[in-house]
Amino acid sequence: MAKIRGSIVVDAERCKGCEVCMVSCPTGTIAMAKEVNGKGYYYAYPANQELCIGCANCAMVCPDGVITVYKTKI
Amino acid sequence: MIEATGIKEIIKPENLVYRKTDIMTDNILSYCPGCGHGTAHRILAEIIDELGLQSETIGVSPVGCSVLLYNYLDVDIQEAAHGRAPAVATAIKRLLPDKFVFTYQGDGDLAAIGTAETIHACNRGENILIIFINNGIYGMTGGQMAPTTLEGMKSSTSPYGRDIKSMGNPLKMTDIVATLAGTYYVTRQSVHTPANVKKTKKAIRKAVQYQKLDKGTCFIEIVSNCPSGWKMTPTQSNKWMEETMFPFYPLGDLKVPEE
Predict the structure, then answer these.
(1) How many CB atoms lie within 10 A of CB B108?
(2) How far is B162 from chain A (nearest CA, A)?
(3) Is the pLDDT score of B259 beyond 90?
(4) How many distinct structural domains can be found in chain A?
(5) Has residue A10 been placed in a domain?
(6) pLDDT at B97
(7) Which ipTM value was assigned to this complex?
(8) What is the CATH number of the domain that holds A11?
């Protein structure tokens, strides 16, 4: 069975660390970084990147539109 | 350069599923973290992009947090005096009937100072789209009580909660508008979860397409959060909104066109 793998790119400098993406991720891929970006926010990043299925839920709810999503079949 | 990227082998143009539309500019939004305004802007921009209406769209921005709408959407935007966006949109639509005209207003703008303009524009059945962001508070000026503030809800001017006896009842603007003969499509949605974002996007797409039919005003209320005004974290505010706002402002269509 073909497995679907996804990957996200977070524009960390524009992320405001609201955690809405983290809550809406069905697989627990996203976590908040331990360090801050230029604005002082704990930005989102794909901590468990092998779990990502490319569903784009995170990008859909991101108020600042900082997430880009890629998906492929392996 | 901060690294926040997943598996590099998958990141190729042919695997792209989702990226921010170009109609949203690269300016950093001035809204607080977690504010529903950003999501509402983005889905509106996506609809304009998908339907190819960039050069035909004229927006009217309100007074409130979303006053800087012209910084974020790469379409023509006209600023209106406080609450007068439907009146300005009426003039634009009547002078340029081929354009798609929308207003984007908050509850302080649309339901308080602009009540008369809103009701009369809807009653006349002006062929415009009104997007109404309802967070039950005057967000920009520091969280004062608005007409839409719920009973018992705390704000900076009702620190012990809204008391119906002395402060009056909360106003359901969308329900009022739905009773008017001039409106064609009236709905209430939210943008706090992926499923709700999809539903709201569908509603906005329908409303934009109805404009071409010249049948009347389309009115979309988006129940939204205000983490700063409500003094909560974004995720707490979304949960509070589900528990407290939705029973009073139930989501769904209030008026759908007959087929």
Answers:
(1) 29
(2) 28
(3) no
(4) 1
(5) yes
(6) 93
(7) 0.92
(8) 3.30.70.20
Domain positions in chain B are 33-255
Q: Under CATH, which number does the domain B33-255 receive?
A: 3.40.50.970
Residues of A in contact with B38 (CB under 8 A): 62-65
Tokens representing B45 are 């921009």
| Residue A74 falls inside a structural domain | no
Query: What's the pLDDT at B258?
Result: 80
pLDDT tens digits, one per residue of A19-52: 999 999 999 999 999 999 999 999 999 999 889 9
**Alpha-carbon radius of gyration of chain B:** 18
Could you tell me which residues of chain B have a Cβ less than 8 Å from any Cβ in chain A?
A: 2-8, 10-12, 15-20, 24, 28-29, 31-39, 42, 191-194, 197-198, 227, 233-235, 238
Amino acid at B73: L
B2 pLDDT above the threshold of 70: no
Q: Is the pLDDT of residue B5 over 80?
A: no
pLDDT digits (tens, 9 = 90+) for B70-125: 999 999 999 999 999 999 999 999 999 999 999 999 999 999 999 999 999 999 99
Query: Would the pLDDT of B1 be above 70?
Result: no
At B18, list the tokens: 């989702």
Strand segments, DSSP code E, in chain B are 16-18, 57-61, 76-79, 100-106, 129-134, 137-138, 144-145, 183-190, 217-223, 252-255
B6 and A56: CB-CB below 8 Å? no
Structural domain span for residue A10: 4-69
Using a pLDDT cut of 70, give the percent of chain B over it: 98
Is A37 in contact with B2 (Cβ distance < 8 A)? yes
Q: What is the DSSP string of B74-132?
A: SSEEEE-STT-HHHHHHHHHHH-TTSEEEEEEEHIIIIIITHHHHHHHHHHT-S-EEEE
The per-residue pLDDT for B14 is 86
